Amino acid sequence: MTMLNEADHSLLSALRAVVGEAGVQEPTETHLTERRGLFRGQAAILLRPAMTAQVAEIVRLCAAARVGIVPWGGGTGLVGGQVMPDGPAPVLLSLERMRAVRAVSPEQNTLTVEAGAPVQAVQEAAAAVERLFPLSYGSQGTASIGGGLAVNSGGLQAIRYGVARDLCLGLEVVTAEGEVWNGLSSLRKDNTGYDLRDLYIGSEGTLGVITAAVLRLYPVPGAKAAAFVSVRDPAAAVDLLNRVQEASNGAVAVFELMSQRAVDFGLAYQSGSRLPVETPSPWYVLCEVWGAGQERLDADLLAALEGAMAGGEVSDAAIAMNEGQRAGFRGLREALSDAQTRQGGSIKHDISVPIAAVPTFIRRADEAVTRFIPGCRPVPFGHLGDGNIHYNVTQPDGADRDGFIAQWGAVNDLVHDIVVDLGGSISAEHGIGRLKRESLVHYADPVKLSLLRRLKSALDPLGIMNPGAVLAAEGP
Ligand SMILES: Cc1cc2nc3c(=O)[nH]c(=O)nc-3n(C[C@H](O)[C@H](O)[C@H](O)COP(=O)(O)OP(=O)(O)OC[C@H]3O[C@@H](n4cnc5c(N)ncnc54)[C@H](O)[C@@H]3O)c2cc1C
Fold this sequence. Notes:
There is one protein chain. The chain has 476 residues and is of the alpha+beta class. Among the domains are: 101-219, Uridine Diphospho-n-acetylenolpyruvylglucosamine Reductase, domain 3 (2-Layer Sandwich); 223-337, Alpha-Beta Plaits; 344-429, 2-Layer Sandwich (Alpha-Beta Plaits). Helix content is 35%, strand content 21%. Flavin-adenine dinucleotide (FAD) is lined by residues 35, 70-78, 81-82, 95, 115, 137-139, 143-144, 146-148, 150-151, 153-155, 204-205, 209-210, 337-338, 429-430, 433, 466, 469.
């Protein structure tokens, strides 16, 4: 791996010539900061190419000059992957102008789109041809599909439709040497050698730039039934998940666990909102089942809830009577991420464990963090159906925010040790970025780590792609 250079005047002029006036912009705060304020990035120049050929030319020029490139989608990543604080200032490569839908085929259930399109715009393009693009999360209005693929994002409907990787059939990528790999295939089966698509998905901009993708579409479900449920504890929530899956023949599309504190924070954040059930409970579940017929779905959901009530797992439930109520339940769940910011400093974890181990994980993590910082407030919530919990810890009421945040690494270690002990992952859906780089080195299997480093050197021999994200820039 070579040392990287500062972008000099001649490189900057050449880059400006590639994209023209419309393709250069002064970086804004949104481009240089990540929303948790843990990293502040830098940029020699912010480029906004309009087409793949421009991206390829930019990469070739940067490779020749040994200057780093940081791909930027919507800036909503939560692990500092899109901001580079150290080393020579990189070229910040925003895909914001590349958002065209290149093709859509309802017959084949595919949609080909450029990487800068917001996730929500992809959903809307699918809806326009009466199809569903099921990737869905709180940041979908801003997050780009390229960013979603680059971090292999998950979201609320992953339990039914899978994560970004499962929703992608083909990719177009500009390699770290500036070649264009046209892998825009819509094939469902293709076993011709190593799967390059799967290599670039989840690579967080460290191997190349994703410029377009062929995505999978699904039929729009004819009916949806939703319930907001008071459950006894996380173990009861796991039992309820199995009951609903069995009763509905696997039709669960959303299954989210929320602690009482998380919901209380959400209600305080959303003015005018109220708890959907009558009795407060230490734990809640948001459950949606999707299928063809409303009556059948309602009956299946009700049967599962009645069984769980008889079993003592569920004490109360509100069933959405219309689309507005369903959206209200979901809006409360989606507000939880932002709601915590109102409560002071928050130390975050995005972990997964086997689904049956979620109750043990939450109990052990609660014990560990409250012993370490008495008075701190665990706020667990997340995608229970995928064993993925956002185990966030809010500062004690009235404590000093900076002093609390200074414990970030120590609290992470406590929680991640438990995760790994239970056979889990320290990053379920946000990626490694710069935030979890050292944790990856600490917890990853040594052979895996060595293979990751060899892949990086093979596909980005000059080390110009997102230097310092996922793996340290200089290697071991
Ligand atoms: C409120 C909120 C809710 C969220 N909920 C979820 C959730 O439920 N599930 C989930 O999985 N995530 C969630 N996220 C995080 C999620 O990772 C991001 O929102 C999104 O996937 C990142 O897309 P982006 O375009 O903003 O990427 P950015 O933040 O711009 O970049 C993220 C990473 O991808 C790289 N990258 C970006 N574009 C490209 C490209 N075209 N080619 C190569 N590399 C690229 C960047 O270099 C960086 O490493 C949430 C975030 C927020 C703020």
